[in-house]
Design a protein that fits this description.
The protein folds into 2 domains: 142 residues, Cytidine Deaminase, domain 2, CATH 3.40.140; 232 residues, Dihydrofolate Reductase, subunit A (3-Layer(aba) Sandwich), CATH 3.40.430. Helices cover 30% and strands 22% of the residues. It has 13 helices and 14 strands. The strands form 2 sheets. A 9-stranded mixed beta sheet has the order 10-9-8-7-11-6-12-14-13, with helices on both faces. Strands 2-1-3-4-5 form a 5-stranded mixed beta sheet, sandwiched between helices. A hairpin with a 2-residue loop joins β13 and β14. The longest helix has 15 residues. It is globular. The protein starts with 8 loop residues before the first helix and ends with a helix. The structure holds NADP nicotinamide-adenine-dinucleotide phosphate (NAP). The site of NADP nicotinamide-adenine-dinucleotide phosphate has 29 residues, from β6, β7, α8 and α11.
């Protein structure tokens, strides 16, 4: 019998609680995965809850065990990802913390494919006589943990592509500032998406045309603004771009490696970090290399916010895990651009690579979200 076969119905309920806690760390926990943990006593009391702290430490289990104190002994601990088995300079391994706390039972969503753990945490817990159940809500856990799983399995962060289109399915052209085709509710949701990712990425064309700030502007959530990254092969981002005004939020300019970059010093003086990336056969920054570069920097998730040329490049590379489309009621008009530089929205359904996963309305606007069919299975096969 596989370990998945004998979990109890309440395990799924508790794992869902742990997953909601895990989600709180999205956009903050990198370079570590956003994990959630709940400690439940034999009488059913929740004695401790935790989620990965900003910057990745302390881990969720350490926080939850700390809350629970002596009540952790004999408890059941629900944790979305296998507890780490490796000590780090920043803290003890969660497996050791659990062994010290002496729970009776540990319920795990997914194994951690990180080679430093990869089943070793589970083995050590079982060897100490603790009952371990694994594989509870694996698909849901894979979705929340996708960035980490992709980073380990594919060497790249999870990618969400976001775009806003008019009722005609076209992208309105910028005119020195962003043009809004959707109302405040949809835009607020899009800012929440920003907060849940480690990096927002756009092409240089969007910086030049829209001059966006690319920060999270929900009340009280400015501190959740992710790093802003621009694909800018020859470092031609204008030094007076609005991006540079907020010095608290880093700007990474991803440029072509091995090419003389005369503006590098000027842009560096404006606060940008210059990040060289190999180019493809057309002399463009290679999407896969850009993602690998971000992954090496610890990034687990990125939100691609356009424009159409960059959106197309990511789709062509088959490196988009989710697409979120906000569709307003107004028309983008005769100057409207096709959302994927030559291809319309129908590309998503026609490609067979994506399935419609959710629809929502925000006032007069409609959001549809599309999942890449292969991403979840790729992530699950890694775990
Ligand atoms: N409604 C929306 O959701 C939304 C969102 C964003 C933008 N927009 C609109 O989209 C328009 C800008 O889009 P765009 O397509 O012209 O520009 P873009 O996609 O923002 O940027 C394209 C530029 O990125 C650089 N780049 C580097 N590597 C690349 C790669 N591998 N693939 C593609 N580009 C790469 C290139 O500049 P270098 O050659 O200099 O490297 C390229 O010209 C504006 O009108 C803006 O208002 C709409």
């Amino acid at each position: 019998m596989s370990p998945q076969d004998h979990h109890q119905p309440q395990d799924e309920y508790r794992m869902a609680q742990a997953l909601r806690l895990a989600s709180r760390g999205l956009g903050l926990a990198w370079p570590n995965p956003a994990v959630g943990a709940v400690v439940v006593t034999p009488s059913g009391e929740i004695a401790g809850r935790g989620w990965t702290a900003p910057g990745g430490r302390p881990h969720a289990e350490a926080i939850a065990l700390n809350h629970a104190g002596a009540k952790a002994e004999g408890s059941t601990v629900y944790v979305t990802l296998e507890p780490c088995a490796h000590e780090s300079v920043r803290g003890m391994a969660c497996t050791d913390a659990l062994l010290e706390a002496k729970p009776k039972h540990i319920v795990i969503g997914l194994r951690d494919p990180d080679p430093r753990t990869a089943g070793a945490g589970i083995e050590r817990l079982r060897a100490a006589g603790i009952e371990v159940t694994e594989g509870v809500l694996p698909e849901e856990v894979a979705r929340v943990t996708l960035g980490h799983l992709m980073r380990v399995a594919e060497g790249r962060p999870a990618v969400t592509l976001k775009l806003a289109v008019g009722a005609d399915g076209l992208v309105p052209e910028g005119d020195g500032k962003p043009v809004w085709v959707t109302g405040p509710e949809a835009r607020a949701h899009a800012h929440l998406l920003r907060a849940r990712h480690d990096v927002i990425l756009v092409g240089r064309g969007t910086v030049v045309t829209d001059n966006p700030a690319l920060t999270c502007r929900l009340p009280g959530m400015a501190w959740r603004s992710p790093i802003r990254a621009v694909l800018d092969g020859r470092l031609r981002t204008p030094p007076d771009a609005t991006l540079f005004d907020d010095i608290m939020v880093p700007v990474w300019l991803l440029c072509a490696a091995g090419v003389d970059q005369p503006n590098a010093e000027l842009l560096h003086d404006r606060g940008a970090e210059i990040v060289p990336v190999p180019v493809d056969n057309h002399g463009r920054i290679d999407v896969q290399d850009a993602l690998e570069t971000l992954s090496h920097r610890g990034i687990t998730s990125i939100l691609v916010e356009g424009g159409p040329s960059v959106a197309r490049a990511f789709l062509d590379a088959d490196m988009v895990d989710e697409v979120v489309v906000y569709q307003g009621r107004g028309q983008a008009g005769s100057d409207g651009l096709t959302p994927f530089a030559g291809d319309g929205l129908d590309r998503l359904a026609a490609s067979g690579h994506f399935t419609l996963s959710a629809t929502r309305t925000f006032g007069p606007d409609r959001m549809t979200s599309w999942r890449r069919v292969r991403s979840c299975s790729q992530a699950l096969s890694a775990a």
